[in-house]
Amino acid sequence: MTDQDRQFTPDSITRRTFLQGGALVGFSAFLVACGTKGTGASASAAPSSAPSESAATSLEPSVAPSPTEKPSPSAVLNFANWPLYIDTDDKDATKHKTLEDFKAKYGTTVKYSEVIDGNESFFGTIKPSLEAGQDTGWDLMVLTDWMAGKVIRLGWVEQMDLGNMPNKVANLKDVYLNVDFDTTNDHHAPWQSGMTGLGFDSKKTGDLTSLAVLWDAKWKGKVEYLTEMRDTVGLTLLKLGKDPNQATREDLDAAIAEIKTAVDGGIVRAFKGNEYAVDLVKGDVILAMAWSGDIVQKQLEKASLKFTVADEGGMLWTDNMLIPKGAKNKYTAELMIDFVYTPEIAAQIEAWVNYICPVKGAQELLIKDSPDIANNPLIFPPDDILAKLKIFKSLTEDDETYFNTQFLAVSGQ
Fold first, then answer.
1. Is the N or C terminus of the chain more exposed, i.e. has fewer CB atoms within 10 Å?
2. Same domain, 254 and 164
3. Do both 376 and 403 map to the same domain?
4. Nearest CA to 15 among 192, 149, 138?
C-alpha cells in the first residue's frame, strides 16, 4: 500500500501507495465476519470552513438520519481514485460499467479521474484549498487508513448523512465498524482492502512459507522490498516476532537494522512501488514483498506467480472513500457511496479489481456467476489466513516522523 503509480501499458502496470495505518479494531471480529475479504480536475473556489492543519477536530456522533428534504442529484460528480481500481472495459480503459449504471439511475455524469498516485502527493494537491476553506474540486476521494485518519482529524472531511446511505449502513461488514479514526462511521466508507505478504515465481523458488526467505543470500539481487514503510517495516517486525500493531520506537530500530543487513548484503535489488509486480513478470526478480491484488492480476500474465501470507504473518490495509470539506456535490457523493454498497454493484467492481471487498452479499452473488473469484482466498480470505494478518498501529505525528525518517534512510528514497 514510497507512493506508486499505475499506467495502462501491457507490461508496465504500476500501483500507487497502499500505505496502511492502524485502522481496524476488533480484529477478532474480522475472523468471524469475513468469510472473505485521467487527469485531475482543477480546484474551484467554493467556500467552506476548514481549520489550519495544526487544529484537531473531535467527531460528533451522527444523528440518525433522514434528511427532511433531499436535493436532486447533481449533473456531475468529480471522483478521484487510484489507477486500475474500478471495473473497466477491457477494450476501452475510459469506460466503467459501474459509473454508467450510476448515470442510468441518477442522471449524473461521473468525472472519474485516476489521479491519485500516492497519499502524500495527492494530499499536497488539495491541502492549500482545504486550508483556505475552498472547494478542492473533488466530491469524492479514496485515501488509505492513515491518511484518511489525518484529514478527518483535521476537520477537512464532510460528515456523511447516513440517512442517504441505507446500503452502506446495512451492508458494511462488521469488521469495519468503529475504527479508531472514525468511531461514528460517518466520515469514511471503505472502498477495498488488501494483504501484504510474499510474492514469488514458484517455478524458480518452489513454494515459500517464511518471511526469512526475504533475507536469504540464496536469492541475492533477486529480491525487492516495498517502498511503503508500513509494509516493509511491518513484515520485518513479523519476521522478528514483533507485533506491528504494538510497535515501539525500539521495535522500529530493530526492524531498520534487520532491513539494513539485507541491503548491505546485496540481497535487496531495490525498493519498489507496484513496479515490483512488473519485475516479477519479467523475471528481473523472483521474490518480493507483495500486495495480494497485484499478484492476482499478474497471474494472468505469468501463471507461476504466487502470493502467500507467511507463517509469521502478513499485513492488512484498507483504502477509504471520503468527501472533502466544502465539496459542491456532497449529496451526490453520498448517493455514489451508497450505490457501490449495493451487493450487485460491489460484486461487479470486485470481479475486476480483485482486492478484498467490504460489502456484505457480494461474495454470495459472485459464487453464482464467478466462482473462481468468489472462492479465491486472496480475494475472500478464509479464517486461517485472516488469523495471521496484522494492522499497523496508529502513529502520533512525532512517531510518524521518526518511523519515516529511519525508513527513508535505509531504503535510500
1. C
2. no
3. no
4. 192
The distance between the two most distant Cα atoms of the chain, rounded to a whole number of Å, is: 67
Q: Please identify which residue in the block is written with the cell numbers 535510500.
A: 412
Residue 97 lies in a domain: yes
One domain, residues 201 and 260: yes
Q: Are residues 31 and 121 in the same domain?
A: yes
Residue that the C-alpha cell 500474465 belongs to: 301
Mean pLDDT of 238-243: 97
The CATH number assigned to the domain holding 127 equals: 3.40.190.10
**Domain limits at 260?**
196-316+392-411
Q: Name the DSSP letter for residue 63.
A: P
What's the confidence (pLDDT) of residue 22?
33
Long-range contacts of 279-283 (CB under 8 A, 24+ apart): 279/224, 280/199, 280/200, 280/201, 280/305, 281/11, 281/305, 282/11, 283/201
Give the position of cell 485502522: 23
In a domain, 22, yes or no: no
Q: Which residue has the higher pLDDT, 258 or 55?
A: 258
Q: Report the distance separating Cα 32 and Cα 41, nearest Å.
A: 41
Name the pTM for this structure.
0.73
The arithmetic mean of pLDDT across residues 318-337, rounded, is 98
Task: Identify the H or E element spanning 193.
Answer: strand 189-201
In this structure, the answer to whether residues 248 and 359 fall within a common structural domain is: no
Q: What is the mean pLDDT of residues 76-84?
A: 94
Per-residue pLDDT of 35-68, as tens digits, reads: 332 223 333 333 333 333 333 444 454 455 555 5
Nine-digit cell string for 260? 539494513
